[in-house]
Amino acid sequence: MTERLQGQVALITGAASGIGASAARRMSAEGATLVLADIDADGGASLARELANASFVRTDVSVEAQVAQAVEHAVQRHGRLDCMVNNAGLVGAFGSILDTDAIAWHATLAVLLDSVFYGIKHAARAMVRQKSGCILSLASTAGVIGGLGPHAYTTAKHGVIGLTRSAASELAPHGVRVNAVAPGTTVTNMIVQGRGSLEAALGAAAAASPLGTPLMPEEIAAALVYLASDDARHVTAHTLVIDSGVTVAGATGSGQFHQRAAGFMGRMPEAVERTD
User: What pLDDT is recorded for position 260?
Assistant: First the structure.
């Protein structure tokens, strides 16, 4: 490894699995000191033990105070925060727009969009003080074009891209870069769960790709390292699409989400409580 992130302190949400865990391992190998944040306390703590230069703080990203606490943990422990990765995610509400439950809708946006706002807000407070920093958020090809994800998920990911551009315009004069990564279908535990098996997930990801090969979390992690490094010091307000050409070459849309009976995939966030 080139250790492109030597000396950096990075906070990663949703770090216990999937793209977040891959990013943690790759950033650690590149020299970064890590703070891992996740609602999965066992998984997050286990990964922190695996990586010698990492600590863990349990965080429900749908709760602003908990995101603020994670940022404060990083700053108090290490004296600074160089990179914030807003990665936590779920599939959330799915099914026809005619049947989508409002509580499931709000729960999806709480995890996928509100959390990014909280992450940018509180990381930026620390970074503006130190006059440097990099904020990265996970968008999706579903945030670039319609029809590739459930309605709430698609809405949230469009919002992430818009917020990335807007925040970048304010924070650039303070030396803070703000970018997003928009992966295509990536073979994570979330996708495996949705497809029923790893084999099915690999097949679906390959079938959705004009290049004919599945996109893996490690490839998204490599892009995050690039954007966090000095190699990307003049890159801001940008959404890096990593989709094997799906958004320009075309792929089968996700009718699977719209045609299924309405439901919710993932852990209901603490910020949204069902009263019925």
Answer: 65
